[in-house]
From TrEMBL:
<dbReference type="GO" id="GO:0045893">
    <property type="term" value="P:positive regulation of DNA-templated transcription"/>
</dbReference>
<dbReference type="Pfam" id="PF00158">
    <property type="entry name" value="Sigma54_activat"/>
</dbReference>
<dbReference type="InterPro" id="IPR025943">
    <property type="entry name" value="Sigma_54_int_dom_ATP-bd_2"/>
</dbReference>
<dbReference type="GO" id="GO:0005524">
    <property type="term" value="F:ATP binding"/>
</dbReference>
<dbReference type="Pfam" id="PF25601">
    <property type="entry name" value="AAA_lid_14"/>
</dbReference>
<dbReference type="InterPro" id="IPR029016">
    <property type="entry name" value="GAF-like_dom_sf"/>
</dbReference>
<keyword id="KW-0547">Nucleotide-binding</keyword>
<dbReference type="InterPro" id="IPR003593">
    <property type="entry name" value="AAA+_ATPase"/>
</dbReference>
<dbReference type="InterPro" id="IPR025944">
    <property type="entry name" value="Sigma_54_int_dom_CS"/>
</dbReference>
<dbReference type="GO" id="GO:0003677">
    <property type="term" value="F:DNA binding"/>
</dbReference>
<dbReference type="InterPro" id="IPR058031">
    <property type="entry name" value="AAA_lid_NorR"/>
</dbReference>
<dbReference type="Pfam" id="PF01590">
    <property type="entry name" value="GAF"/>
</dbReference>
<protein>
    <submittedName>
        <fullName>Nitric oxide reductase transcriptional regulator NorR</fullName>
    </submittedName>
</protein>
<keyword id="KW-0238">DNA-binding</keyword>
<feature type="domain" description="Sigma-54 factor interaction">
    <location>
        <begin position="187"/>
        <end position="416"/>
    </location>
</feature>
<keyword id="KW-0067">ATP-binding</keyword>
<keyword id="KW-0804">Transcription</keyword>
């Protein structure tokens, strides 16, 4: 059976109309599902030995967040290796990547499955997958008809990739327009906040501006920094990471700028700092708000003049480093409180980026859950890991105070629990596998003191000792994290603890 001219014209029009590639691709597979009468269809992009879903119809929403590696999916590997239409036998032994991901279908052991590889010239750029519960669903359609569909889809996908590449290059000034980025970091999310963030990353990555990335803990600020670096002309050079919160004040300057032999006790040789390691590349200063005011002044000098001095050395070293700074603090408030230099804040925040918390990202929760389900499946060697409808609803109803990091840990824990209770390697995640209920704080009636009163200063200091000890216990004796929990500057916390006799 061949498609009529009207059907082919309709598909072609769907690919030409609309304001965005996502709209066109969605209409394409929706139309294909109607024309072919299949139960599920998907358009996938091929990149770095994996297929990335661009648009789906008839599949669970979390499929959009999954990344299907060739090594983990024999059917998709067969499609990638084929140069033509692939028709899988209805009873094929090869596991289907969508097993358990078509709503209402428990398994796909016997079904019709067709794969159409998409090429730009001789280069594989994607695939169309078609699934039907009737084993003979696609028997009536000739290979020639399916090749026409594949050609139309390949042309649309190739145009979208070309436009994306040209847009990226046009943002780069001067001779850098020939720049080819390295493998790009995947930022999963289709919510308005994430779409806007991705646009801003594309814009600022092409420049050489310093960027301040702010957002709650666990939102993915480091991922944003990686995306900026990978989208920049510096992509082939190092991205160097430094967590300012984990730096004891005594070694922070040496970590940043290096030192010479004999500069201090223990300096037995010359050592380069992070700025030298990041020369011609990018330096990410995570938790920038934890730097002392003295180090902030030295960092400002580097940003202004582009030279550094190793500890114990009078000579200056020129460096060409782009600085990205990340923080979960409100640095404007820190400036007002006198804990952060206003001039450094303005130097860093020429182009600020805000990473939205997960609770504001809507259905991105499901896409990310799909991504982590697939990662768990590969890591644990499972045949499938899927979320049932009730589990998806549970994930959507939770506020995620720990953001994406909490979601990742919740998925991994749920998979381990479900696998332990399952008979085989098929894992279906249900609401009971997620321990997301925050225990309510018990109501405690105030108790009037019955013990003799003590001097106010002694009582205050005893209270301070208890609070500091509790914070250190909760944060594994990390002073910087404990200071944040107590609403203090870490240097002030060290001084207070010493005065209270809690430090030598």
């Amino acid at each position: 059976m061949s498609f009529s001219v009207n059907v082919l014209a309709k598909i072609a029009l769907e690919l030409q109309s609309g304001i965005g590639h996502q709209d066109r691709f969605q209409r394409l597979i929706t139309t294909l599902r109607q024309v072919l009468g299949c139960d599920a269809s998907a358009l996938l992009r091929y990149e770095a030995r994996q297929f990335i879903p661009l648009a789906i119809d008839g599949l669970a929403q979390d499929v959009l967040g999954r990344r299907f590696t060739l090594e983990g999916h024999p059917r998709l590997e067969a499609i990638a290796r084929a140069g033509d239409v692939v028709r899988f036998p209805a009873d094929s032994d090869l596991p289907d990547p969508y097993d358990g991901l078509i709503p209402g279908q428990e398994d796909l052991h016997v079904h019709a499955c067709v794969g159409l590889p998409l090429f730009a010239g001789q280069t594989l750029i994607g695939a169309l997958t078609l699934d039907g519960m009737d084993p003979h669903q696609f028997d009536a359609f000739s290979d020639e008809s399916l090749r026409l569909i594949a050609a139309l889809a390949a042309g649309a996908l190739d145009n979208a990739l070309l436009i994306e590449k040209l847009e990226r290059q046009n943002l780069l000034p001067g001779p850098s327009t020939t720049f080819e980025p390295v493998t790009r970091t995947q930022m999963i999310g289709l919510s308005p906040g994430m779409v806007q963030l991705k646009k801003e990353i594309e814009i600022v990555a092409a420049s050489d501006l310093n960027v301040l990335i702010d957002g709650e803990t666990g939102t993915g600020k480091e991922l944003v920094a990686k995306a900026i670096h990978e989208g920049s002309p510096r992509a082939a050079n190092p991205l160097v990471y430094l967590n300012c919160a984990a730096l004891p004040e005594s070694v922070a300057e040496s970590e940043l700028f290096g030192h010479v032999k004999g500069a201090f006790t223990g300096a037995i040789s010359h050592r380069s700092g992070k700025f030298e390691a990041a020369d011609n590349g990018t330096l990410l200063l995570d938790e920038i708000g934890e730097l002392s005011l003295a180090l902030q002044a030295k960092l400002l000098r580097v940003l202004q003049y582009g030279d550094i001095q190793r500890v114990g050395d009078d000579r200056s070293i020129r460096v060409d480093v782009r600085v990205l700074a990340a923080t979960n603090r409100d640095l404007r408030e820190e400036v007002i409180a006198g804990r952060f230099r206003a001039d450094l804040f303005h130097r860093l925040s020429v182009f600020p980026l805000h990473v939205p918390p997960l609770r504001e990202r809507g259905d991105d929760v499901i896409l990310l859950a799909g991504y982590y389900c697939e990662q768990c499946r590969l890591r644990l060697g499972l045949s499938r890991v899927v979320l049932n409808a009730a589990a998806r609803a549970r994930l959507l109803s939770y506020a995620w105070p720990g953001n994406v990091r909490e979601l990742e840990h919740a998925i991994y824990r749920a998979v381990v629990l479900a696998h332990a209770a399952a008979a085989g390697d098929d894992v279906v995640l249900e609401p009971q596998h997620f321990n997301l209920e925050a225990a309510p704080a018990p109501h405690v009636e105030p108790v009037l003191p019955t013990a003799p009163l003590q001097p106010l200063r002694d009582a205050t200091e005893a209270f301070q000792r208890r609070q500091i000890a509790a914070a250190l216990d909760q944060h594994q004796h990390n002073w910087a994290a404990s200071a944040r929990a107590l609403g203090m500057d870490v240097a002030n916390l060290h001084r207070l603890a010493k005065r209270l006799g809690m430090k030598a």
